[in-house]
Amino acid sequence: MVVATTALAVLTGTGLAWSAKQDFDSGFTHSTALGADAPRSGGGAVNILLIGLDTRKDLDGNDLPKEVLDQLHAGDGTAGGYNANSLILLHIPADASKIVAFSIPRDDYVTVAGIPGYQQIKIKEAYGLKKAAVQAKLIEQGEQDPIVLERRGREAGRASIVSTVRDLVGVPIDRFAEISLAGFYDLATALGGVDVCLNQAVDDSEFSGAVFPAGRQHLDGAQALAFVRQRHGLANGDLDRTHRQQAFLTSVAKSLKDSGTLTNLSKLSALMDVAHRDVVLSDGWNLFDFARDLGAAGAVPVEFRTLPVLRYDVIDGQDVNIIDPAAIKREVRAAFGQEPTKPATAVPTSVVDVHNVGTVQGRAAELSAALTSRGYGAGVIGNGDSSDGLSSTITYGLGAADDARTLAELLGGLPTAASPSVRDGRVRVALGADFALPAELSPTTSTTTPPTTTTSNSMPLADAGKPLSTNIGSTIPCVN
User: Fold this and answer.
1) Is residue 54 a contact partner of residue 84, using CB atoms and an 8 Å limit?
2) What angle do CA 372, 377, 381 make, to 5 degrees?
3) What is the value of pTM for the model shown?
4) What's the pLDDT tens digit per position in 5-34?
């Protein structure tokens, strides 16, 4: 978050002090978890994933000092694990005309790949579960150095959360920044606190420590952390918490602008110390040059949104958000200015073969039946082979291009390509572990087939709220 707010605040035109450039860039920890072969945005646009990690440990795996943990009101070093409790995807177009930021609710129930023993999890768990699996494997191989285990485990965790988010939203991720739980506290403290506005008074003294009156108020570092962590006692739970995080970003950026931090070397030094201690950047991201380039655009409007949730549910005793991945992909792509394929008006003429390359039994048959009811010809159903790869894709033969593109859009923007191995007039759909059946194709409108699920009629309806439009450095919004 400190990285995003620093860069976004530069959009107001305050600028960073050039004399601090070398120290600023060289002090960050960098990660190669994004991968050299990862898809990238084209045309000068950039998508940035902000990862707020709920850990009480430093980058080497050491517990934070007790005096810091006491201020965090978040338990000791054994609490929290390595959940990615804050996920925000920023899109900055090539002309920097408008920034769109999607908050991703941490309890969204998603399909995952590459995490032993798991097929579907809460999205926040993709980091910690992968980290634990890699560390266990390293220990089996004889690695005993706790710092090596921590660093390699966290690299695997970063790669896992990035790929999981990318599979969910269906757009490239060009850069990412990770900040620890303590980073929220350190950032707010370095700024002398932040201003917030609440629609109602709250008392969450039992859990997050958030006890605040209604209205506008100034919070210190510990209070600011409680503000972004609270979910108990809120009308929309974690969805309201995403709005808190959005308001926090706006408040920090406004504070950076109003206080002159970015042009005051003493204040900037304190902010840099926070960033270097608490932030990990994707490899190759020169934040100073990035902020300088954005600064030329002036006061750019920012729209904060939250990914939609179909409903709440309980799966294996855990509260989860049931989502429609295909609808999410369409919404994100539309918000990012990526035009979807127009639905075909003609009746499909292609035969569709469905190959299951994931681990969920019956998925190919389920999709084939749904597509047959839509007018597609029923083709071969079965398990895939090495030629299908491991991820969900669509390939097609001669004469089936239009049907393939329409089908790709229906399934949430799956990658599509012509293939000489697919017969004329046929489409081949490979279903990887990342695939979830779109709600509009499911007779039950459920995107999951969990082992144990309990839905209560008393559970509130999911409400992601309306988009929040603002300019960085402008008025702080009131939230629940």
Assistant:
1) yes
2) 80
3) 0.81
4) 444 443 333 344 445 555 667 788 999 999
